[in-house]
């Protein structure tokens, strides 16, 4: 009886020893897989930030900086997808640094968000993070390539095409109507300069009579393509940069009674791609983030990237 019991114990012990490497091997495989998944995480290098930032954390900071947190979640989701696409395209999936400025994408780190939102930080952060999580990994593609997902605050009622902006034809960046932008608080603006202040900005000296002989040539989206004064010619973009005005849809005149130059503009930003206030209007009409993006970017696909296969 004892010998039989000893034999069973030996068999059980041998079985346990035999199974131990298998179980250990399975645990090691699980760890390896998780480690492999983490190694595929895309990190974004933001100029001025000490450490690289995980992609989705970076997008949280971009959406918080680029779009009012009060906007509808579907508009925030559209912004998240556009911002993620722009970041990956600009940095080549994290291989190059990106500036946190309006020339690229504005970025607020957590410290800045806490400062901006103060007592509303937790609620605002939750809303932004939900928009990020619900679109995690989603990007915009054209012919299976990341698009240049340009966006702007407010159009003049019609977005600008890539050709109108730069002279380069890009199929997915065409001009579309965005009439709801006209209700935006940033739709119309007016700025004034004394003639001395005005002349300090230009490479030529203007006289009051010059404002009666300037010629403004507009493109199909209603923005200034070029300004001509005698033999001097400037593009609309050059004038916008030179004066620091909100858009290239502008008029200008000299008021003899106040002796000031007045410039009126419509829209805010370069006007190409998605209008953020237009996206908000569409979201409030019940449109989804996908519908918003397909409207502002023509013939694109929305897909989820696999960082390991990039």
From TrEMBL:
Alphabetical list of Pfam families matching this protein: SpoIID
Domain Sporulation stage II protein D amidase enhancer LytB N-terminal as annotated: residue spans: 51-142
InterPro entries per the UniProt record, alphabetical: Bact_Sporulation_Assoc, SpoIID/LytB, SpoIID/LytB_N, Spore_II_D_firmicutes
GO biological process entries: sporulation resulting in formation of a cellular spore
Gene Ontology cellular component annotations, sorted alphabetically: outer membrane-bounded periplasmic space
UniProt superkingdom: Bacteria
Stretch forming the signal peptide: none
PANTHER family, alphabetized: AMIDASE ENHANCER (PTHR30032:SF4), N-ACETYLMURAMOYL-L-ALANINE AMIDASE-RELATED (PTHR30032)
Protein name: Stage II sporulation protein D
